Amino acid sequence: VITSVSALEILDSRGNPTVRVFVETDSGTRVSASVPSGASTGENEAIELRDKDNSRYNGKGVLDAVNNVNRIIAPAITGQPVSEQVHIDRIMKKLDGTENKSNLGANAILGVSMAVARAGAESAGLPLYRYLGGNTARRIPVPAMNIINGGEHADNNVDFQEFMAVPIGAPSFREGLRSIAETFHRLKTLLKNRNLATGVGDEGGFAPDLENNEAAMDIIMEAIEQAGYKPGKDISISLDSAASSFSPDLTSKYELKWSGEGKMNSDEMISLCRDWIKKYPIVSWEDPLAENDWNGFRKLTEKVGQSIDIVGDDIFVTNTKYIAKGIKEKTANSVLIKLNQIGTVTEAIDAVQMCREAGWRYFISHRSGETEDTFLADFAVAMGGGQLKTGSASRSERIAKYNRLLEIEMELGAMRCIIGRK
Ligand code: PGA
Ligand code: ZN
């Protein structure tokens, strides 16, 4: 049973405060878990509680969330069997009493939820991926490595947030990771040779100023080839436009920084996507349209959903309420899963389960603000793979997850996931 729950304000990879939770049990288990934090957040995400005390961390402190763990959640779950994940998550939801966890804060609740899962695994003597995924969990997700950063994750002029290299042809996770890391290094050389910036963005991808969004694709194609791989056969591309971040009304207007692309409506954005899908080896496209552009999402999915994954992030926010609507209306065919968008481990698993039942894919994801916690790697294996976004081949908060997956693969001789709809 749980004997102690406590929280600490720590820093994330952007140097902003976040919550770390410690859980102890009577069997001597003592574990911790740390909560990530997004920048391009959806309107309907569970609420991350910030102190708004401008004398500390520009108002971004999380001492209220820490206090909520120590004073409200801890007494309510102390004495509960640590294996009762669903029950404990339910207690916290009820204690909070709001739909979006704005009372106690999703950062407080998720920190406890993750730490309880880890304590449960430890008490059962199991690795976390096996504890959460069962004895048959042995699929390693295909990594989508974010090698060019734009949008709200960098200060360059690239509108689309993430350009990711996906090793679709690799025989194992280890070899796949090598191929995309080699591509990342080749890309650096190419940028350097053209006097373009090689500094990195929030998720560790390069963040150069480029002629337009398409130039990012072209230079990635070159990097893949020069690294000795075939685009579309060995390595494909996943994109995250994070289109809400350049849509002032979140529905129908898109304002790109480029004179050629410039201001667009939903249909024009759809036709840009279709042109790119014809031209480049794209396997999945996340948030190609803004979070309230359900119609646009549906139209694009109808046109290209047979051949690529249309992934909803800000539109579904890992919430079964919105995912169910999406499934009914054929709005997309894949969901981005972010633990802190919904706020408990149980509800994130519910979202994955809903995808599975509908024959939709799911994409497990980090946030742009991360910590050294590797919970996500185990969680992705527990969920049976799919794709995983956990950043680039730089920045240790990203690499930590890749390294954990290498360990799991070694432990399991694990099966690799297969992706792609063609
Ligand atoms: P975020 O970015 O963590 O800043 O929301 C990740 C994503 O949009 O997928
Ligand atoms: Zn996204």
UniProtKB/TrEMBL annotation:
<dbReference type="InterPro" id="IPR000941">
    <property type="entry name" value="Enolase"/>
</dbReference>
<keyword id="KW-0460">Magnesium</keyword>
<feature type="binding site">
    <location>
        <position position="389"/>
    </location>
    <ligand>
        <name>(2R)-2-phosphoglycerate</name>
    </ligand>
</feature>
<feature type="binding site">
    <location>
        <position position="367"/>
    </location>
    <ligand>
        <name>(2R)-2-phosphoglycerate</name>
    </ligand>
</feature>
<dbReference type="Pfam" id="PF00113">
    <property type="entry name" value="Enolase_C"/>
</dbReference>
<feature type="binding site">
    <location>
        <position position="368"/>
    </location>
    <ligand>
        <name>(2R)-2-phosphoglycerate</name>
    </ligand>
</feature>
<keyword id="KW-0479">Metal-binding</keyword>
<dbReference type="GO" id="GO:0000015">
    <property type="term" value="C:phosphopyruvate hydratase complex"/>
</dbReference>
<feature type="binding site">
    <location>
        <position position="338"/>
    </location>
    <ligand>
        <name>(2R)-2-phosphoglycerate</name>
    </ligand>
</feature>
<feature type="active site" description="Proton donor">
    <location>
        <position position="203"/>
    </location>
</feature>
<dbReference type="GO" id="GO:0005576">
    <property type="term" value="C:extracellular region"/>
</dbReference>
<dbReference type="GO" id="GO:0006096">
    <property type="term" value="P:glycolytic process"/>
</dbReference>
<feature type="domain" description="Enolase N-terminal">
    <location>
        <begin position="2"/>
        <end position="132"/>
    </location>
</feature>
<dbReference type="InterPro" id="IPR020809">
    <property type="entry name" value="Enolase_CS"/>
</dbReference>
<dbReference type="GO" id="GO:0009986">
    <property type="term" value="C:cell surface"/>
</dbReference>
<feature type="active site" description="Proton acceptor">
    <location>
        <position position="338"/>
    </location>
</feature>
<feature type="binding site">
    <location>
        <position position="161"/>
    </location>
    <ligand>
        <name>(2R)-2-phosphoglycerate</name>
    </ligand>
</feature>
<keyword id="KW-0963">Cytoplasm</keyword>
<comment type="pathway">
    <text>Carbohydrate degradation; glycolysis; pyruvate from D-glyceraldehyde 3-phosphate: step 4/5.</text>
</comment>
<comment type="function">
    <text>Catalyzes the reversible conversion of 2-phosphoglycerate (2-PG) into phosphoenolpyruvate (PEP). It is essential for the degradation of carbohydrates via glycolysis.</text>
</comment>
<dbReference type="Pfam" id="PF03952">
    <property type="entry name" value="Enolase_N"/>
</dbReference>
<feature type="binding site">
    <location>
        <position position="286"/>
    </location>
    <ligand>
        <name>Mg(2+)</name>
    </ligand>
</feature>
<dbReference type="GO" id="GO:0004634">
    <property type="term" value="F:phosphopyruvate hydratase activity"/>
</dbReference>
<protein>
    <recommendedName>
        <fullName>Enolase</fullName>
        <ecNumber>4.2.1.11</ecNumber>
    </recommendedName>
</protein>
<keyword id="KW-0324">Glycolysis</keyword>
<dbReference type="InterPro" id="IPR020810">
    <property type="entry name" value="Enolase_C"/>
</dbReference>
<feature type="binding site">
    <location>
        <position position="240"/>
    </location>
    <ligand>
        <name>Mg(2+)</name>
    </ligand>
</feature>
<keyword id="KW-0456">Lyase</keyword>
<feature type="binding site">
    <location>
        <position position="313"/>
    </location>
    <ligand>
        <name>Mg(2+)</name>
    </ligand>
</feature>
<dbReference type="InterPro" id="IPR020811">
    <property type="entry name" value="Enolase_N"/>
</dbReference>
<dbReference type="GO" id="GO:0000287">
    <property type="term" value="F:magnesium ion binding"/>
</dbReference>
<keyword id="KW-0964">Secreted</keyword>
<comment type="similarity">
    <text>Belongs to the enolase family.</text>
</comment>
<feature type="domain" description="Enolase C-terminal TIM barrel">
    <location>
        <begin position="137"/>
        <end position="418"/>
    </location>
</feature>
